[in-house]
Design a protein that fits this description.
The chain has 282 residues and is α+β, with helices and mostly antiparallel strands. The protein has 2 domains: 51 residues, no CATH class; 219 residues. Helices cover 59% and strands 11% of the residues. The strands form 2 sheets. A 5-stranded antiparallel beta sheet has the order 1-2-3-4-5. The protein has a two-stranded antiparallel sheet with strand order 6-7. Helix 2 packs antiparallel against helix 3, helix 3 runs antiparallel to helix 4 and helix 5 runs antiparallel to helix 6. The model has no long low-confidence stretch (mean pLDDT 85).
Length: 282
């Protein structure tokens, strides 16, 4: 018996969806995000336009691995987002002590680092589609890997690098006696770069869910909502960063209220995204 016919779909050079025609009829569909997040394939009956069955194709060990990684990543983003929101609230409504809010931001940044790295581990250690067959296979555990032609790896890698760049921004915010130029170079610039990386990561995540680089609406997909809420948070972070630029002529921020409120609302988006992600599990 020959191999089942296989067809591919995706965004640009990246494959995010595969189809196998079953000998008994119907089609097995592998999609990147559901497979690595939930360990499932979908099955379409003959003539069905939508997936009618979700088949838990990964083995029990792989599903347990996915649950643990998802719990760590989602909890890290919930806590990290909450701490960032608290830091912004202290900056906006508190005593005005920059060291207090900087300390809270730094603690939140550590959780964002953990969430970003856990997301990368989800990609590296999630079940893969077995070539030439409509099933999933689980590889050995890896702490690191380089797979730039996988859209999910590229998106989570950019996210993780973004969290590290934010770490530079948060560390530099503890420096005292900086000139306006030094503040903009050492604190503001890493903030903006981190925001850009978050936005790029969110766009790649949308491409993975939509199977194309153009935007799409998948209101019935939990994964789409996780990506959408997080991307809204990234947009708000960018608004906050732009408002936090220090004017060389006056030494004051462009708009401190917008900077604080942008951070607060953006951080809450990441917390909500973390809560939603907790349910995107096997």
């Amino acid at each position: 018996m020959g191999q089942p016919e296989q067809r591919a779909d995706g965004a640009g050079p990246f494959t995010t969806r595969l189809f196998w025609d079953r000998p008994e009829g119907g089609t097995v569909v592998w999609e990147s995000r559901p497979a690595r997040r939930r360990g499932v394939l979908s099955v379409r009956g003959p003539g069905d336009g939508d997936a009618v069955t979700l088949s838990a194709s990964a083995d029990a060990a792989a599903l347990g691995r996915l649950r643990r990684l998802n719990a760590i990543a989602s909890s890290a983003f919930v806590i990290g987002g909450a701490l960032f929101a608290l830091g912004a609230a202290v900056a906006q409504f508190g005593s005005g002590d920059a060291l207090v809010s900087a300390s809270i931001y730094f603690a939140g940044g550590l959780f964002f680092n953990l969430g970003g790295y856990s997301s990368l581990l989800q990609v590296l250690n999630g079940p893969r589609h077995a070539p030439g067959s409509g099933r999933l296979a689980t590889a050995d555990w890896r702490w690191w890997g380089y797979e730039p032609m996988r859209l999910d790896w590229l998106g989570t890698f950019v996210l993780f690098v973004g969290t590290l760049v934010f770490g530079v921004n948060l560390l530099d915010s503890f420096l005292q006696g900086l000139t306006t130029q030094q503040v903009n170079r050492l604190v503001w610039t890493p903030d903006v770069v981190g925001c850009v990386l978050f936005l790029v990561s969110g766009h790649l995540a949308f491409a993975e869910v939509c199977h194309r680089f153009r935007p799409c609406l998948r209101s019935r997909s939990l994964g789409w909502w996780v990506v959408a809420v997080n991307q809204l948070g990234s947009v708000l972070f960018m608004v906050s960063a732009l408002a936090a630029f220090t004017r060389p002529a006056t030494g004051s921020l462009v708009n401190s209220a917008i900077a604080n409120w942008g951070t607060l609302t953006g951080a809450l988006c990441f917390s909500v995204g973390g809560v939603l992600q907790a349910f995107e599990r096997p």
